[in-house]
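Tokens for Respiratory-chain NADH dehydrogenase domain 51 kDa subunit. Go.
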Amino acid sequence: MERGASTADRSPLVRVATDVAANGDEQIVTAMRDEADSIPVVRTGPVGVLGSEPLVMATREGRTAFFAKPEPSTARDVVDTLEDGLIPADDADAVVEHGPETTSLPIPNTGPLSVGQRSVLARCGWVDPLDPNEWPIVSSDRAAEAVTDTGLLGRGRGDAAADGPVADAWETARDADGDPVVVANANETRDEQRADEVLLGGAPIAVLDGIAAVAEYVGADDAVVYLNEEDSHLHQHLREAIEAVAGELPIVPQLVAGPDEYRAGAPTAALEAMEGADRIEPRLQPPSPATHGLYGRPTVIHTPRTFAQVRRAIRDPDAFDADAADPGTRLITVAGDVADPATIELPSDSSLSVVRDAVELTGSFKMACVGGVLGGVTRSLDVAPTAQSLAAAGLGTDGVVELLNDDRCVVADVGERARFASTENSGRCVPGREGTKQLTELLRDVYQGSLETDTIRELGRVMTRSSNCQIGAHAPRPVTTALDEFEPEFRAHADGRCPSGTCTEKL
């Protein structure tokens, strides 16, 4: 494919960063293009900060003015000012000076975009996500050998190597009998988990490149991107990305839609869904998917977050400290009682406490649930965003931090999470099927004056150790960690009083 000029080479220029599903933002793009006679207006992908999107960025000669959620009239004024030879700085939310040919999003000194370290997110929102000129392909001449020495761990609950070395899964699949296949698991149903969606919207070619590099390494001729059937806009976006680089990638994945069910995002349940099983449930292990996966073939299953880290490690292996316990960065979506969620990127030497700078909390902070709907409850975010530190603190690693305000009742909140687990588990194993029901009943009993903390903890221990599915294994975590932090509130409920004053009905 012939290469042309990239977005970074063009000035003046207007970028409009927006989510792929945000059709309403098209009016901003249309208004600016209608106004512009000589200024190119490029729609880029999301930056990850929902409260800032659409984010209009006006660039001229190494300076960029940022406008979050502008009115169409403001957007037109931005174009007019650029065409007059000026940078529209007066009404901008921020103005950043940068190299005239920078290929990464310039970062303002303050605001959500300034939080963390944008590495795999570096180009998201700054360049056209569907333009091959913006995304140099590495998989065509380099497989993933360079990654095997970095110690990279899998990211996210949908990753079969979650919090474990990805190279181990690759070697198993490489040595197993049969033709390997590589799967990108992006079937997510929960609104608070947006990291993979941001990557697939803002950097789809980078993810496809990472998939191809892993496929080359394990000797796979086939690859699959597994999406939620409800994400029609993302399907179309990925189809366009695949078409854009089909001639350059050594392996072109196919898109497969899975059911809009939480359980269908677990790695082996995803395999069942892709094979067309009527009942979506996790498989018993061993054997692992790397040995016996999709249609019995050796299968490597990672999330888009992992594949993005793979590509980054291939392009810049020096950015990964092989001696670190959890090399690379982790994407964190900050959600909960906030004005707008934001997806940020944190290095391993950072602290989760900085996530509060990325959002506007509604009310006063009371607690956080870290690790998704079945994550751990904590009062303190003074913990490193590494798999090891999060696990040691009893928290989850799925890349979600829900900030919850003081209007929240901790007993009601963890009760809702337990009830979610009782309805969403596959029912395949007794700890998952019956344990989640018992856990929910024990929490209902608190409202009846009975708090059996020892029974709750013992049930949680058994479920965590013996459940076949992640839902059963992780369901006790919100409850047991909340007991550690807020046992007096549980006891108050057993005495007929809700300290937060928000409980109006029983579970």
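The chain has a mean pLDDT of 93.
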